[in-house]
Specification:
The complex is a heterodimer of chains A (354) and B (532). Chain A has helices at residues 4-23, 28-36, 43-68, 76-96, 103-132, 136-156, 191-208, 210-220, 222-228, 232-259, 270-280, 285-304, 314-334, 343-350. In chain A, 71% of the residues lie in helices and 0% in strands. Chain A has 354 residues and is mostly helical. Chain B has 532 residues and is of the alpha/beta class. Among the domains of chain B are: 114-175, no CATH class; 263-351 and 436-532, 3-Layer(aba) Sandwich (Rossmann fold); 358-433, no CATH class. Chain B is globular, with a radius of gyration of 24 Å. Classes of the chains: A mainly alpha (354), B alpha/beta (532). The interface between A and B is large, with 27 and 50 residues.
């Protein structure tokens, strides 16, 4: 039952994609294979896929935690950007001050800087909700735009590379600051194993610890949580800070990993895609890993498909179709639609209150 | 105590207007319904004459609900036939049932809280109907049967008793020829029950047949003309309840003599829970404000709070459990410690446990397993770093299931998969098993069958004998009279002085439930026990 609607949704998405390709006058089989088969072929493609999987796993884990606790953080993108600023800022400082670091020695500092910056940005959401009862959906979403504008300001003014011909970007970071790579010649770095470890830890936390149990009860039955004496404020702060930290680490990995500098492009949409990942993964850490692989393939496919003159925006379309069809499938699996004059029985069957 | 058959009750003269030789309004023959291996209804026969008030008596799980759902068209029988006015009919859906003139008032109401009374009823009517006409019709129908109901009020502002009135009026608006009532009195005061009975008798006198589902024997004897008793899905008897004793009906229903709670005299110890002059404004405009509530519970006694639901019980119990920590610290004391501002977790650590009225969603999380639900109030299975010792957790859960004879497939069963009675046994068991110093229980046996109810009450009495201070709030007066040593009555957020149960009468408590205790309190019942 838990797998039914993601599988149905994926099938429908593939059908929609195929139809779209036909409408665009492309060979649907060849085009689809770019999205579903090609990303998994060859070492280069696989490592590039892994590079995309890493931030998706990290962001979606935090979101799954939030959503399970009924905290609707949809601003992982902003927390990702702040993590990028934190990690990138540290790397820039090290580069411009000529501090001697080793790759492995600097790696933990990148993680801490990204986590702190991301958590700080999420703390703003938690504070607004806690102090002013502001809706966290709106606040977290709008703070994404604030984060992006802040980043833009940084790279066009104070952090701009003085030797960059006025381009909105920082200096290229010293090679010693980049995250250790897993395979020579490939961009994939040691962030991926860390993300998988994080998924395992999150699974343990959610399903094997009292605190994780508490957070989920707060989301499932707030009255039961109040009865038990679980603090909703603690749940709000814990989930948002954790989620912000995870997204922040993802952002830091991105700039100190493959990118090597901080520019306006740091906001790459991973934070939004992670929402789809979290739901397709059924808010389960293991599901998040699997869904991250799928959604990464979509993204990688979007890059590969440009060779066929297929617009890269289609990736976003497929992500959207996947999420919407899955939510629709969930609705139809759990509810029955009735037409016509239902009368009181219809009212009774929809949702009676005791 | 018993609501004895009142003079206007069922003497032979006020029996139903039977059309001798005429066909019954409703007749069931050989009705059988299976769910897998379980036979919910086995060859059931039932006949209801026009104008007859017919009781269907049985314990939880005896098949009453399935039978009513068959009559109401919500469930299709596997075998058997249904005759309406002597003609075989097929009731395929509740819509068909309503077309025949069958109306049903469910135990759990189907009302949208954010809508008004009239809007709720309007929802079920044809689209062309105007809301203003609906309001007028509700008003007229309510007047006709002497039911107080304002059609423009919002449902969330209504008490449970008033909500039931909405359901009854909704049913009556269709001018039914057969009205089915499922456990209608569980939420009413004795006076309100009497009022309901007047309404029902009036309705029956117009020729409408009534199917009255209940396990309250005294009510059935006071109201009903016939009684069909179900046990294990089978009809085990059909009698004239007025000619049976309570014990006789009970034996028919459960196949054995009713269990009685044996209660030794109390040995009250030190003051355990002390509420002093507690006033709390309402949280929202629909809550009931608490007005200078003073309450004492000592070790080794059971104190009952009677009252019609919606008179401040929810607010008082939330302030005692810690779910509402707004009380002044000193207004609630636990063994002398001010706890008014502590949350429920902190109070539980001090030995105060609570069983809330709502089992699903508050006392237990519906989708989680029984073992996981143990973690709501119990921490024995939690190890360092918050790690859950699952073996210990499941063992502990299993122990509670066994000790309190909870019928559940296992410790991994979801809370929502249990019947109401079994889940209640589990929740009460979970709290009793914690060996609390003070236990507060709301509606300990609401919707629970006779056997399980007797078991829960016996456990509460045993807990009290072991020295625990027990506070029980219940709508069920019989229950309070059976188990409590002293009684308080709550009405409109105010609490009456205490009265020893042995010195109280149902009539007096019933009157107090309307808030009328000032006049007699000094003359009849001086408050026993000095304030500590």
């Amino acid at each position: 039952m838990t797998l039914l609607s993601p599988i149905l949704a994926l099938s429908i998405t593939v059908l929609v994609a195929g139809t779209l390709f036909i409408a665009l006058d492309k060979d649907p089989v060849r085009a689809l294979s770019l999205f579903l088969v090609k990303p998994f072929q060859g070492t280069w493609n696989l490592t590039e896929l892994g590079l995309k999987i890493t931030p998706l796993i990290l962001c979606s884990l935090g979101l799954a935690l939030c959503f399970r606790a009924n905290v609707w953080n949809i601003g992982a993108e902003g927390q990702f950007v702040f993590g990028a600023i934190g990690g990138g800022g540290l790397a820039m400082w090290v580069t411009t001050h000529g501090v001697e670091v080793s790759r492995w020695g600097f790696f933990p500092f990148v993680i801490v800087a990204g986590a702190l910056a991301g958590a700080a940005w999420a703390a703003a959401v938690a504070y607004c909700k806690d102090r002013f009862h502001a809706n966290e959906i709106l606040v977290s979403l709008m703070l994404v735009y604030v984060a992006n504008l802040f980043l833009t300001w940084l790279v066009v003014d104070p952090w701009k590379d003085p030797a960059g011909w006025g381009m909105p970007k920082t200096v290229s970071f010293a090679a010693s600051t980049t995250i250790p790579r897993m395979f020579p010649g490939m961009r994939l770095h040691w962030g991926l194993p860390l993300a998988l470890l994080a998924a395992a830890a999150m699974w343990m936390f959610l399903f094997r610890t009292f605190k994780g149990n508490q957070l989920q009860i707060g989301g499932l039955a707030p009255a039961a949580a109040r009865y038990a004496g679980f603090s909703p404020r603690a749940a709000l702060w814990t989930t948002l800070l954790t989620s912000g930290a995870l997204a922040g680490v993802a952002g830091a990995f991105e700039v100190v990993g493959p990118s090597g500098q901080l520019n306006q492009g740091a906001a790459s949409g991973y934070g939004f895609t992670a929402i789809v990942v979290a739901f397709v993964g059924r808010l389960n850490p293991i599901g998040c890993v699997l869904a991250s692989i799928l959604l990464s393939a979509f993204r990688r496919g979007g890059e590969l498909a440009q060779g066929m003159q297929i617009p890269p925006a289609l990736t976003g379309v497929f992500e959207g179709v996947l999420l919407v069809t899955m939510l629709v499938c969930d609705t139809f699996i759990h509810h029955r639609v009735r037409f016509g004059n239902g009368g009181p029985a219809a009212a009774a069957s929809s949702r009676p209150t005791p | 105590m018993s609501l004895s058959a009142s003079p206007d009750g069922v003497s032979s003269g006020t029996g139903p207007k039977r059309h001798e030789g005429g066909a019954p309004r409703l007749e069931l023959r050989h009705v059988t319904k299976r769910y897998g291996h379980v036979v919910a209804n086995d060859d059931v026969a039932l006949a209801v004459a026009p104008g007859e008030i017919h009781a269907v008596l049985g314990e939880n799980g005896a098949g009453k609900s399935t039978l009513m759902k068959i009559i109401y068209g919500a469930v299709h029988p596997d075998a058997g036939e249904i005759l309406w006015d002597g003609r075989p009919v097929r009731i395929g859906s509740p819509h068909d049932a309503r077309a025949l003139g069958i109306a049903m008032v469910f135990q759990h109401f189907s009302l949208f809280e954010t809508l008004t009374v009239a809007e709720n009823i309007w929802l079920g009517l044809p689209r062309s109907t105007k809301l203003r006409d609906v309001e007028a019709r509700i008003d007229a129908k309510a007047r006709e049967y002497g039911l107080e109901l304002d059609p423009t009020r919002h449902v969330h502002a209504l008490s449970v008793g008033e909500r039931q009135r909405v359901e009854i009026v909704r049913a009556l608006l269709g001018d039914p020829r057969l009205l089915i009532l499922d456990e209608p009195t569980s939420v009413l005061t004795p006076q309100a029950v009497e009022k309901l009975f007047v309404t029902l008798r009036q309705l029956a006198a117009t020729g409408c047949s009534i199917l009255y589902i209940s396990h309250k024997l005294d009510e059935i004897r006071a109201l009903c003309h016939r009684c069909t008793v179900l046990r294990g899905g089978k009809v085990v008897g059909s009698t004239d309840p007025t000619k049976e004793t309570i014990a006789g009906l009970s034996r028919l229903m459960i196949g054995a003599d009713p269990p009685r709670v044996v209660r030794a005299p109390p040995h009250p110890g030190v003051m355990a829970l002390h509420v002093l002059d507690l006033s709390l404004p309402q949280v929202d405009r629909f809550g009931v404000p608490l007005d200078r509530v003073t309450l004492e519970v000592r070790e080794g006694e059971i104190v009952g709070i009677a009252g019609v639901s919606g008179n401040g019980q929810q607010q008082l119990l939330a302030a005692l459990s810690g779910e509402d920590p707004r009380a002044p610290a000193n207004a609630v004391r636990l063994f002398g410690t001010p706890i008014g501002r502590l949350g429920s977790g902190a109070r539980r650590r001090l030995g105060l446990h609570f069983v809330p009225e709502e089992r699903l969603g508050r006392g237990a999380v519906p989708g989680l397993s029984l073992a996981q639900n143990l973690l709501l109030t119990r921490r024995e299975a939690i190890r360092g770093f918050g790690w859950i010792d699952r073996r210990h957790l499941h063992g502990q859960t299993k122990g509670i299931l066994g000790r309190f004879r909870v019928a559940a497939p296992g410790t991994r069963a979801a809370a929502r998969s249990l019947s109401g009675g079994n889940l209640q046994k589990y929740i009460v068991g979970r709290e009793i098993d914690a060996v609390p110093k003070v236990l507060i229980v709301a509606q300990p046996t609401w919707g629970v069958d006779v056997g399980a109810a007797a078991q829960i009450r016996a456990e509460l009495v045993a807990l009290r004998d072991a020295g625990c201070a027990v506070l029980v709030a219940s709508d069920d007066l019989d229950e309070l009279f059976e188990i409590s040593d002293r009684l308080y009555v709550i009405a409109r957020g105010r609490l009456s002085p205490p009265v020893p149960t042995a010195a109280a009468t149902v009539e007096q408590i019933g009157q107090w439930m309307s808030g009328l205790w000032e006049r007699e309190q000094e003359t009849v019942h001086p408050a026993p026990g000095a304030n500590a």
